Amino acid sequence: MNEELLDLDFKDNQSETLIDRREFIKIAGTGIYILFTLWDTSVFAQERQRRGQNLPADFNAFLKIGEDGKVTCFTGKIEMGQGIITSLAQELADELDVKFENVKMVMGDTDLCPWDMGTFGSMSTRFFGPALRAAGAEGRRVLIELASQQLKVPMKYLSTENGIVFDTRNRKNKISYAMLAKGKKIERHLKEKPEVKKPSEFKIIGKPENRRDAYEKVTGKAKYTGDIQLPGMLYAKILRSPVHGAKLVDVDLSEAKKVDGIQVIHEGDFIALLHKYPDVAEIALSKVKAKFDKPKTGINDKNIFDHLLKSASNGEVVAKAGDLKKGEGEAENIFEETYLDGYKAHSPMEPHTAVAKIEGDKVTVWASTQTPFPAKDEVAKELSIPSKNVRIIPPFLGGGFGGKSRNNQIIEAVRLAKLTGKPVQVAWTREEEFYNDSFRPAAIVKIKSGINGKGKITLWDYHVYYAGERGAPVFYDIPNNSTTVYGSGWGGNAHPFATGAWRAPGNNTNTFARESQIDIMAAKAKIDPLEFRLRNLNDKKMINVLKAAAEKFGWKPAAAPSGRGFGIACGTDAGTTVAAIAEVKVNKQTGDVQVKRVVCAQDMGLAVNPEGATIQMEGCITMGLGYALKEDIHFRDGEILDLNFDTYEIPRFSWLPKIETIIIDNKNAPPQGGGEPAIILMGAVVANAIFDATGARLFQLPMNPERVKQALNKN
Amino acid sequence: MADIKFKLNGKQVQLEVDGDRRLLWVLRTDLGLTGTKYGCGESFCGSCTVLIDNEDVRSCQTSMKDVQGKEVMTIEGLEKNGKLHPLQSAFVEHDALQCGYCTPGMILTAYSFLKKNPKPSHSDIIKEMDDNLCRCGAHQRIISAIESASKKMEGGL
Ligand code: FES
Ligand code: FES
Q: Which of A192, A355, A371, A696 has the fewest CB neighbours in a 10 Å radius?
């Protein structure tokens, strides 16, 4: 390898957060390396603009073909249950022509993997996947080149199979990848997009593959952050204020200090108790007597919507067509409705956890995080050290759903490791997880729409507050429409606590509002809700998924409310088009809603691992029942009233409908997101089914028994 | 401090611990068996499920003094001689997990009730598993895995 060239390359690399490539290759030993960056620049650039992030212009991942013929992919993405540890390996194995088992994924370790902004937004398969395949294809080409020299056969006669390059004229003339990589250090940069396999050539992509992490996970061997124990490590429990915005005025630590083996840290408002056993640290914490000055904001989960509307910033028109006045003039019926959605918790089963170790000037942190590279910079800032001294290692994550993009627990752990001089584990309790969560924001949608006598929508004036743009612009064929977005769906000062991205952020709220409004118009026009949608759609993919779902469901046209309890909804998210039909049963006495059946059809382009994609759809539908029916954060003056699963109810086995999924075969289209789309439909599809069952319309999520009863009474 | 003796995954264990400490933390920290997970600490989620004398219990609520003389099995004890238990294999085959954090608790809860009810109906499974939470939404596959394991096991465990 040309050292000079490498030096040059490296100096060009200005960002400190980027891995020292030379160092890396030194550690990683001999082999063939392909360094690559994300391809689809137009989409990626958009994403980068939207997020206001600086992305490195340099490579984003490595792959290595080792002396043993095995392939390792080093990527900054992480595995949190969404299954990319399997689907990315499939893509690489197929392009490189190696056995699936021979591909190893090294994920998220900031010392081994190149920079990545984080794992969220259904972007791994959409943006990373195509680049990975290209790198695989490049790797295959390098191997053929090498084989051509060794076997003295022109490249055009060579082909690959199962980790071997062979002469197509004489199959016995062959050489293994292992032999080709032996004793070599070859570095290639993917500069042009090499030709990847055509769908007809796929052997592994598009075939259902079981999760490759399943064995570890069923035996208890899989390591999550909390499972990491270091010699001399202390478990920390941190004193929390009972209310957001409260001030500590007085604290008495004398009783806590009496606990055998306890170490107490008291730095201003930051009080932590550390012990070699977490449960003992917890007991010590319970002995702390603290007095807080609690603010009286007067804001609670009932009046929050008024508060938010009052605090709203100016709206931004993000989509517009035609003339709203004209649309209003052409309408025979005008509908003006307001939809509300409360705060939702992420509540992954594994709460935020971090283990920090400081040795000399080097800091190592194991953490449940969706954003290891941003975390690295946050730690560097907190400790005022260069970012290159920080290593973040994300083990398996016990769920994330967007909530683990925030890394407060990491900062707490490094702070305490520094103060105590020992390795420290911070593992939030369930109560802390609720209290510190960055909730999905409460949001309001106001829609004014109109239809003419033929059941065509002529007017659509859409205003969304605090859910953001995702899923807001209308995809129905409406000549006069406008979409105005007030505030982002991520944060903002108006919320009484932290808010952030929650699986398909914003789109859950937007789709609930849009698809409810569509149904209201269909009912008024006495048109079957499927027929009404089809009449107002041009989008072929949308029409296709609606029809596919309807066919599987056995949909028979009828205007709602038909008494059958059938609801329909559709939408787009992360490039994927999705439709669902649900059947519900409503107990009119109790207001309880049981979802009996959900049929969901999705067009996600190429489904890399159809098995994985199906699991994600099922997961979305099941998890989505929670925000549709029960999940809501109650609070008063900054105090979170739901702190565990007794009052914050998440979906259970007994809620489960029969779930049927359809993935439209669309191999030739680029792969799209799969971990989020189906969840966006669950509010609307259930609301529309409740209406069909009872004639009662719900305008607020969740549709808990109390609200259902209210709506029934109004009816 | 108490002297607590019990059987853990088939082996005799003797510990000097405070009898009021919870089994969950003793397993995870003192004994290094981290397959048993913390999810809520209040008996709401089932992530911390272990078997005591073949009954599923929530180790976050179990005091060490109550383990005295008992037989405890954790997820680590289920695989025998490198062979997965049929429930474990069924979870793998059915992809009955995503993040996998709830999985040990799910498998042990199922193990315990299959012992009493080897041929459960679909609704039996739902009833027995209902207090085990899974945030990823793997429920449908967990049910299928339990159904298929119960068939394979034919009443034996
Ligand atoms: S941790 Fe024991 S039941 Fe949740
Ligand atoms: S698989 Fe993630 S909580 Fe069940």
A: A192
> Same structural domain for residues A150 and A126?
yes
Q: Both A532 and A674 in a single domain?
A: yes
Specify the pLDDT at position A29. 74
Q: In angstroms, what CA-CA distances link A570 with A130, A280, A409, A679?
A: 27, 51, 38, 11
Separation of alpha carbons A101 and B98, rounded Å: 19
pLDDT of residue A52: 45
With a 6 Å cutoff on the Cβ, whether B120 touches ligand 1 is: no
Q: Is residue A134 within 8 Å of A148, Cβ to Cβ?
A: no
Does residue A283 belong to the interface with chain B, where contact is any CB pair within 8 Å? no
Please choose, from the candidates A211, A234, A235, A121, the residue with its C-alpha nearest in 3D space to the C-alpha of residue A396.
A211
pLDDT tens string B3-26:
999 999 999 999 999 999 999 999
Residues A272 and A317 occupy one common structural domain: no
Of A220, A276, A348, the CB nearest to B135: A348
φ, ψ (nearest 5 deg) of residue A46: -60, -45
Residue in chain A lying closest to B42 (CA): A644
Do A179 and A326 have their domain in common? no
Domain range for B143 is: 86-153
**Ligand 2 and B107: CB distance under 6 A:** no
Token output for A679: 């969840």
- Strands A333-341 and A700-701, by their bridges, are parallel
Q: Per the omega criterion (within 30 degrees of 0), is the bond before A199 cis?
A: no
> Which domain does A688 fall in, by range?
312-344+439-714
Alpha helix (H) residue ranges in A421-539: 430-436, 507-524, 529-535
Over the range A602-623, which residues count as b (16 or more CB within 10 Å of their CB) and which as e? bbbbbbbbbbbbbbbbbbbbbb
Q: How many domains does chain A have?
A: 3
Q: How far is A77 from chain B (nearest CA, A)?
A: 15
- Judged by its nearest atom, the ligand closest to the C-alpha of residue B23 is 1
Does A493 lie in the same domain as A424?
no
- Is A622 in CB contact (< 8 Å) with chain B? yes
Q: Are A684 and A516 in contact (CB under 8 A)?
A: yes
Interface check for A260 against chain B (CB to CB < 8 A): the answer is no
Residue A262 and residue A142 in one domain: no
In A, minimum Cα distance to B127 occurs at A654
Question: Residue B103: nearest ligand to its CA?
Answer: 2
Same domain for A426 and A565, yes or no, is: no
What does the DSSP 8-state code read for residue A200? G
Residues of B in contact with A222 (CB under 8 A): 100
Ligand 2: centre distance to CA B92 (Å):
14
Instruction: Answer whether residue B123 is part of any domain.
Output: yes
* CA–CA gap between residue B137 and residue B134 (Å, rounded): 6
A690 touches chain B (CB under 8 A): no
Task: Please say if the pLDDT value at position A470 is more than 90.
Answer: yes
Q: B61 with B122, same domain? A: no
